[in-house]
Automatic annotation (TrEMBL):
InterPro entries: HTH_MarR-typ, MarR/SlyA-like, Tscrpt_reg_MarR-type_CS, WH-like_DNA-bd_sf, WH_DNA-bd_sf
Domain HTH marR-type positions: 28-164
GO MF terms, alphabetically ordered: DNA binding; DNA-binding transcription factor activity
SUPFAM superfamilies: Winged helix' DNA-binding domain
Native source species: Paracoccus siganidrum
Protein name as annotated: MarR family transcriptional regulator
DNA-binding listed as a keyword: yes
C-alpha cells in the first residue's frame, strides 16, 4: 500500500523507531532482571541483618511483611497488594506471625470472612529493625552520591509508571 510513496519519504519516520526500539527493549529487559535480582538481594540483606542480631525466628519475607504492615491495620489482601509477596504465601506467613506473637488479628465487623491484622509490640520491634537497616542503607547511598544521578525521585517516577502499566495489563486480561 505504501509502494507509491518514494523510499526517501518513508525512511525518516521508520528509521528512528527501528533504531530506538531494540535499545529501549534491551534496557527494559535488563531492568526486569535488575528488579528481580534487587528483590532477592534485599531479602539477603534482611536475612544477614537478622543473623547478625542472632534472630533466627523469622524469615526475610516475614520480616518484610511486618515492615510493610507498619502502623496500619489491614486485611491480608491489602497487605499482599502493598508488598512483593506471592499470594499463597501471605496467608501462611500471617498465620505463622500470629502464632509467634508478632501480629494480632480479628474478624471484621462488616465482613466476618475478612480478618484484619496489625503488629503487636513484638512485631513493631521487628519493623523498627528493618526500618533502621533501610535507613542505614539510604544514608550510605546518599553519602556516596548513588541516589543523585539520576535523582532517585526520577527513578521512582519511572518505576511507578511501569507499575501502573503492569497493573493496567493485569486488569485488561481479566
Amino acid at each position: 500500500m505504501l509502494s507509491h510513496i518514494p523510499q526517501a519519504s518513508r525512511a525518516p519516520t521508520q528509521a528512528p523507531a527501528a533504531d530506538h526500539a531494540p535499545e529501549t527493549t534491551e534496557a527494559y529487559l535488563e531492568t526486569l532482571q535488575l528488579l528481580e535480582r534487587m528483590h532477592r538481594l534485599m531479602l539477603d540483606l534482611v536475612k544477614d541483618e537478622f543473623e547478625r542480631l542472632r534472630r533466627n525466628d523469622l524469615t526475610p519475607v516475614q520480616a518484610l511483611l511486618l515492615y510493610n504492615l507498619g502502623t496500619a491495620e489491614v486485611t491480608a489482601g491489602e497487605l499482599r497488594s502493598r508488598g512483593m509477596y506471592q499470594g499463597s504465601n501471605v496467608s501462611y506467613n500471617l498465620k505463622k506471625l500470629v502464632s509467634m506473637g508478632y501480629v494480632s488479628h480479628e474478624r471484621c465487623d462488616m465482613d466476618r470472612r475478612s480478618v484484619r491484622v496489625r503488629l503487636t509490640p513484638q512485631g513493631q520491634e521487628v519493623r523498627d529493625i528493618v526500618r533502621e537497616l533501610f535507613m542505614r542503607h539510604a544514608e550510605g547511598l546518599s553519602m556516596s552520591g548513588v541516589l543523585d544521578d539520576p535523582p532517585i525521585e526520577m527513578v521512582n517516577l519511572q518505576t511507578r509508571r511501569i507499575e501502573r502499566f503492569w497493573t493496567e495489563q493485569i486488569r485488561y486480561i481479566y
